[in-house]
Amino acid sequence: MTQRETILRVLRLATHPLDDDELARRTEISPRQTVNQVCRLLESEGFLARVMGPNGKIVNSLGLAHRHQPATPAPAPAATAAPALPGMSAEQRTAERYMLDTLGERLGLALDPCRLHLDDGLRVEVDGTDVDRTVLVECWAHHGPATSAQKHKLMNDALKLYWIGATLPNDPRLILCLSDAAAVSHLKGGSWQGQALHDLGIDVEVVSLPDAVDGAVIAARARSSR
Question: What sign does the dihedral 177-180-186-189 (CA atoms) show?
Fold first, then answer.
């Protein structure tokens, strides 16, 4: 397996974007500068996205073109790993991964997407949770005020969190995580939506995206709307 194939395979198996140091450790490629050079080449070819991570280091995540790259088949994901949602762009996944990592740092927890298996046999996916299920998070990377349809989406996410939380025995904290305070401005000023979230015990956290990540999300949405 070539160095580029090794790096792509490790990123496919990773649950979050990896910086060059972590990639060098996991791939056992040395010196570290070799990893940096290969990743920059893969970025120029569209296989990787390289953005600023929550710790101030550049992190690598898979880009759209990687699906055309031949690679050794990866093992099937664990039952609790949530697959990428249909229609979600690589830019959106990178943004939401950044939001989860940053929110996790605030809370002192490691948050990851998860597919939960409920007692009645239903399976439901949540954007982020910790291993002890003390927190449930739904993320939305969005720039600017929410439209009417997007306001309904937020309340749908809130209902989903409340319902899942009610099925768990440990009364988890419920969080809607957004990337722009303007997207939840309608929840202030005595709105029924804001009061409903308060009464249901659902917190709203804002994690601002780095300019490069925010710009990539905006560009991806502009492309999809053409």
Answer: positive
How much is the average pLDDT of 165-184? 91
Q: What is the pLDDT of residues 35-59, one digit of tens each?
A: 988 988 888 877 888 888 877 788 9
Contact 79, 108 (CB under 8 A): no
> How far is Cα 219 from Cα 90, in angstroms, rounded to an integer?
12
119-126 long-range contacts, CB within 8 A, separation 24+ = 119/167, 124/160, 124/164, 125/82, 125/83, 125/85, 126/82, 126/160, 126/161, 126/164
Of the listed ranges 51-65, 69-83, 84-98, the least confidently predicted one is: 69-83
Q: Which two tokens stand for residue 115?
A: 């597919």
Lowest mean pLDDT among 44-53, 100-109, 131-140: 44-53
Nearest Cα to 136, choosing from 84, 103, 106, 173? Answer: 173
Q: Which of 20, 1, 10, 7 is nearest to 75 (CA)?
A: 10
Q: Of the candidates 164, 155, 138, 158, which has an alpha carbon nearest to the alpha carbon of residue 201?
A: 158
Model-level pTM? 0.61
Burial 177-213 (b: 16+ CB within 10 A, else e): bbbbeebbebbeeeeebeeebeeeebebbebebeeeb
Report how far Cα 166 is from the mean position of its chain's Cα atoms: 24
Residue whose tokens read 């609790």: 80
Give pLDDT, residue 224.
62
Measured between alpha carbons, how far is 52 from 20 in angstroms, rounded to an integer? 12
